[in-house]
Amino acid sequence: MSMESVANSVQLPPLDNPHERQAVGGELEVVLQELIGLSLIGKQLHWSVIGPAARSVHLFLDELVGEWRELADVVAERAVTLGFVPDGQASAVSDGSRVEPVPVRSVVDHAVIWELARRVAAAAERVRERLARIGAADLVTQDVLVDVVRKLEQQQWLLRVQLGDRA
């Protein structure tokens, strides 16, 4: 083994080929953009919520946004660990995130929960699809994305129970 290949193997986790590294990094970048998109939508709804449960929804949205930001950081750090620098800037998130925007107006508390539950469910499904594409190319990345799906599905459940009979 040459010194150069030893240095590369020390610097980057091993994947079977460089194309997989780029592909896995690209999948992580899209997940990062989805999570940032959710956090931005969450803050918009946080500022817009009205109604009898507005205070509790407002506080819950703060928790969710914090969780999405933490997950985004873990996802981005995994990409960088693999040697891929993801783009989480506003323009990239605008172009890459498939999180549906919300109207810029006041939104009643139960409608905030409904709108967010739909978006979280859709984001969880999209991350699941990425899990399938990554397959066994990188089990550590797969594990990171499993954690993302687990958290999104838990949030989906917590949102759904708040809807009660409206779900």
Automatic annotation (TrEMBL):
Residue ranges annotated for the Ferritin/DPS domain, each copy included: 31-165
Regions that span the bilayer: none
Source organism, top-level taxon: Bacteria
GO MF annotation terms: DNA binding
Family matches, as InterPro entries: DPS_DNA-bd, DPS_DNA-bd_CS, Ferritin-like, Ferritin-like_SF, Ferritin_DPS_dom
The keyword Cell inner membrane is assigned to this record: no
Keyword annotations: DNA-binding
Family: Belongs to the Dps family.
PANTHER family according to UniProt: DNA PROTECTION DURING STARVATION PROTEIN 1, GENERAL STRESS PROTEIN 20U
Protein name (Swiss-Prot/TrEMBL): Starvation-inducible DNA-binding protein
Organism name: Kribbella orskensis
Taxonomic path: Bacteria, Bacillati, Actinomycetota, Actinomycetes, Propionibacteriales
